[in-house]
Amino acid sequence: MSKLKILLVEDKKEEIEVYESSIRRYQAEHEIDVETCIAQSISEAYTLLNNSYDGAIIDLKLEEEGDEGNQVIQQIHKNFRIPIIVFSGTPDHFNSDKMYVLDICKKGERSYGELVSQLHNVYQTGLTKIMSGRGVIEQTIDKIFWNNLHSKIPIWETYAKEGQNTEKALLRYTINHLLELLDNEEDIYFPEEMYLSPPIVKHYQTGTILREKSTRKLYLVLSPACDLVLHSGSCKTDRILLCEINDINMSFVKSSKKNLAKPEKEEQAIDCLSRLTKNTFTLYYHYLPPVKFFEGGFVNFRHVKSYKIKDLVSEFEMEKVQISAQFIKDIIARFSVYYARQGQPDFNREDLYTQLVAL
């Protein structure tokens, strides 16, 4: 049986009793064990807070001022990784950023069972198992520390004494071991994994997606990563290479979708659309799948532009999305193959065929 751990921040005894009754019913109906820690004040909430929770249900009014729950939410956002649902008789007192909570509900309009079900849905994604203090990341980092780093501490001490930036190097080293863990398994990726949204780094990188202000067209930065490394706040290169991203519903995509309804053309249409998504339709298109936060499209390697950085700043705006590292590598490789292709002189194919048959 799975176990869901919830923090309830609520000061009214009768509300706590309603919650506990709802939890008993929910556990019986869904065969899940729910552990609840109850905080009836800000100080109790601060004492109980840690990264072990799968979710928190927070009332905003815990004392006379009426916004004490906001302080708990801000404390969670600053120090922890816990999905939050605000459940209050005065939801209009919420003054934190809405992006930091799953939902804002008014008491009486939803039941505690519904709130727990919402947190249970998040739990089933595995997010809290990964990101919580008892999650796989912490467990793996523990292994990396003891198995890979601890015995090598003297080496890193030597680099540090030489004045080198060992902290960043150790971060890279740790990330490489985390990636080793992931790369060891064959899993089907989800389209959302292709993108970082919003990206943490705010300067141009290989894989940054830009929108042209005048035409509203999308472009992908394909300059080599080494050219975009910042030195004293500036890139090594004075020009950045962009590749246009065509609309997800290009004309022949639309026609292929229409042909799906025509029996005589259905097979051809399925083949066309399937090869587009697999990047086997042509050398010069690369498919970017649409997701809720990005419209997707086809990178068109034939439509390439180069801009001075000052012009790029004035003519383009950054989208809140970036192609992630494992996917941009494939795009760069295909882009390179497209422009590196040479072909060979044509033979007389009929003669070659005749010779082969005669052998």
Please state the second-level CATH architecture of the largest domain: Roll
Count of discrete alpha- or pi-helical segments spanning 4 or more residues: 14
Overall radius of gyration:
28 Å
The largest sheet is:
7 strands, antiparallel
Q: What spatial form do the alpha-carbon principal axes imply?
A: globular
Q: For the largest beta sheet, what order do the strands appear in spatially?
A: 6-14-7-8-11-13-12
Overall pLDDT level: 91
Instruction: Please bin the fraction of helical residues.
Output: 40-55%
Structure description:
The chain is an alpha/beta fold and 359 residues long. It folds into three domains: 3-131, 3-Layer(aba) Sandwich (Rossmann fold), CATH 3.40.50.2300; 136-183, no CATH class; 194-340, SH3 type barrels. It has helices at residues 13-30, 42-48, 68-79, 112-125, 127-131, 136-149, 153-161, 166-183, 225-228, 251-259, 266-278, 309-315, 325-340, 349-358; strands at residues 3-9, 33-39, 55-58, 84-88, 103-106, 195-196, 208-212, 218-221, 230-231, 234-235, 239-246, 285-288, 297-308, 316-323. It has a seven-stranded antiparallel β-sheet, sandwiched between helices. It is globular. The termini are far apart.
Question: Which features would summarize this protein structure in a list?
Answer:
14 helices; Rossmann fold; SH3 type barrels; globular; 359 residues; seven-stranded antiparallel beta sheet; five-stranded parallel beta sheet; alpha/beta
Short description:
The chain has 359 residues and is an alpha/beta fold. It has 3 domains: 3-131, Response regulator (Rossmann fold), CATH 3.40.50.2300; 136-183, no CATH class; 194-340, SH3 type barrels.
